Amino acid sequence: MAVAAVHVLVFPWPLQGHINTFVPLSTALVNSGVHVTFLHTEHNFRRVRCTEAAPRLRYLSVPDGLPDDHPRSVGDIFTLMESMWTMGSAAYRTLLLSLLFPGSGEFPPVTCVVADGIMTFAIDIAEELGVPALAFRTASANSFSAYLAVPRLLELGETPLPVDEPVHGVPGMEGFLRRRDLPRLAPAADGHPTESETAADVHPFLLTVAKGIAHCGRARALVLNTPASLEGSALAHISPHMRDVFAIGPLHAMSSVPAPAASLWREDDGCVAWLDGHTDRSVVYVSLGSLTHISHEEFTEFLFGLLGTGYPFLWVLRPDMVGAAEKEALRGAIGDGSKVRVVDWAPQRDVLRHRAVGCFLTHSGWNSTMESILEGVPMVCWPFFADQHINSRFVHAVWRAGLDMKDMCDRSTVRSMVTEVMESSEIRESVQALAQRVQRDVATGGSSDNEFKRLVGFITELSTTDRHQARSPVMNGDISHQG
């Protein structure tokens, strides 16, 4: 049933992993009859080449405040945050005001905002203007629950360190969580931080993230890209802290209409054809995501560890991950390309569902974890920062869907863990059982399907009952913010 009067502005944090989740959310909303305005930063808008949109879906952009040549890499996250909270937020406010009073056109006024929970300003500004706002977090419910527990963790002195000491401060995870599994800062450019460096820097990082997590409780609801069957315990611990919680993932498996392009890099179309030339479950797929950086030493250990397995492998190495020395080493190792293929970026979902892929060596980002589970592909996990450390622990210790290689990067460990995951029938059976559970969640009548329908009804009701609260910029003294 069409709900044409409902118009949702969706606004992801401007990094690849977040965009990847917001795009299928937008597609699913559009398929439900909702108008959607997808808000990119200008820098990303140019990169994803948004030239066409579906009916009721359009793309707009605001500046992020950084020059075009700024790397926007993991080492610059706090610079990006500061710029978004100043220039980005001002531009967002001006745009949102204009969308409340659009005049004639096919899009009605914005009636609801679904903003990335990282961007607390997007939620606050919407509510100030009388537009109900929901927080959408693209990480796992387990990591969200761990961030909620930060005050208790700091009280107990259980901060992230690369040690096996157990953690007791995260409800529901007391039996298996270790200090090395807690969310951490990104490593320095020359490799993982030392224990002392981590201990010195972790408190400001944790407190900053925890403040943003707690802020989600001020939104009308929290939306998570996860199925209840996989993270039910964490969802139960989160719910008392939020006004409402919707578990609607994995979103990429829920939309019946293919989502529009979302990649900030050009995908290599030839790698799927390369996989066609290999036997079933014989290839190792290696991708460490859109932000991970590796040192020369780590690159070397990965390379010789993978070569040591004897299995062919497809390795995603972004141009900003490696330098000339690494590229020279690759040229010597690849040979005729029959056993090794290296690409800048890959169509990951197509790769993971390919019959030739037997193992995924991953950074344990939540999108990658969900995509691998859904396709029944076992994992070797090498987390880099933030929620990835929690995800990798669950993959290994709880879901039995792979092995956790965190804090290790030597060729013998790479070789042995990849070989074990490629050959273990127990791990494969476990991850395939998980795949069946998640597939039931996203199927018609499953928990995620039902929760998404509830979300559409929730947004529709907010858009109807709160419409009269949208304030005039003239009456409320906001005219000075319009461009």
UniProtKB/TrEMBL annotation:
TM annotation in the entry: none
A GO molecular function annotation here is: quercetin 3-O-glucosyltransferase activity
Arranged from A to Z, the UniProt key words for this protein are: Glycosyltransferase, Transferase
On the tree of life, the source organism's domain of life is Eukaryota
Say if the entry is tagged with keyword Secreted: no
The protein's Enzyme Commission number: 2.4.1.-
The broad enzyme category this protein falls into is transferase
Write out the similarity annotation: Belongs to the UDP-glycosyltransferase family.
User: What is the official name of this protein in its record?
Assistant: Glycosyltransferase
Q: Which organism is it from?
A: Dichanthelium oligosanthes
